[in-house]
Amino acid sequence: MKILVTGGSGFIGSHVADALSDAAHEVTIFDIRKSPYLRPDQKMIVGDILDQECLDKIVENQDVIYHFAGIADIDECAANPVDTAKHNILGTVQLLEACRKVGIQRFVFASSAYVYSDSGSFYAASKQACESFIENFSELYGLKYTCLRYGSLYGARSDERNSIYKLIKQAVQDGKIVYRGTGEEMREFIHVQDAAQISAAILQPEFENQNIIITGSEKMRYIELLEMIKEMLGNKIEIDILPSERKAHYKITPYNFSPRLGRKMVNNPNIDMGQGLLQCMAEVYEKVHSEKHEEMGLFVNDTKPE
Ligand SMILES: NC(=O)c1ccc[n+]([C@@H]2O[C@H](COP(=O)([O-])OP(=O)(O)OC[C@H]3O[C@@H](n4cnc5c(N)ncnc54)[C@H](O)[C@@H]3O)[C@@H](O)[C@H]2O)c1
User: What's the CA gap between 126 and 122, in Å, rounded?
Assistant: First the structure.
């Protein structure tokens, strides 16, 4: 199928684009910035989802749209409600409008486990608004959709906005992790490649007009994650747990009661958390120590002895 991935230059969008290409789909990435991960079998269009004319043109020859473009960071949304409304809500509605005009076969939306949580502020509000617009486009115009409600993702291509990336970077760079919270906060972390495989698999007809929850298969407390990182780095790092002033994150579960239920899907087999963390550590180490490169699994200096 011909599939357009908006936000495909970003963290999760780029992995989903790869999973779709691996499944032999013809993938085009649409993003405001060029993808650093673009493969030879993928096309790239640089553009803005706020440009309706451009959207009308690019969706014309597509079968399916995966929509990942927007502001993904909860803190950035909390500080910028107007931009959140523009990029996350208006951008999605404009894309839906373009899709209904040409009869797109499926609109796949990157929602969040935060969608009906009472933490998550404007970010959650934007996801709720989008899910609601999508349901209405489906009811009024028969546009088929799947909302993917992602939980806490981690893995390659993440950056400072990702909680696991931030912890590993502190550990590798400073030899110390300062964690703000109680440590009892619970998450179901999922490796981004597992999430991407599930995201590609939902094109089957049974997932039409469904909300799918994509989180890890096991719950983990932050304190356990911190201990795991410490152990993997040879117990040579310090951990400081300090009180948090943030309100916008959930303690045990992001789920609050809501009438719009989701089905949880897991990838089987899936990437072991320890293996996933090792992969992140290698990536962070390479970025932090750019003077070194990897040779046969070892990091060696690029500088030659005088
Ligand atoms: N990362 C997570 O843990 C997570 C969890 C739940 C949901 N999501 C959702 O998945 C989607 C992608 O998240 P991510 O973590 O990959 O974020 P990201 O910031 O890495 O990717 C978002 C991409 O959207 C592009 N973009 C932003 N505004 C645009 C615009 N106006 N026009 C075109 N492109 C635009 C950016 O350039 C970027 O490449 C978001 O909708 C996010 O809310 C992510």
Answer: 6
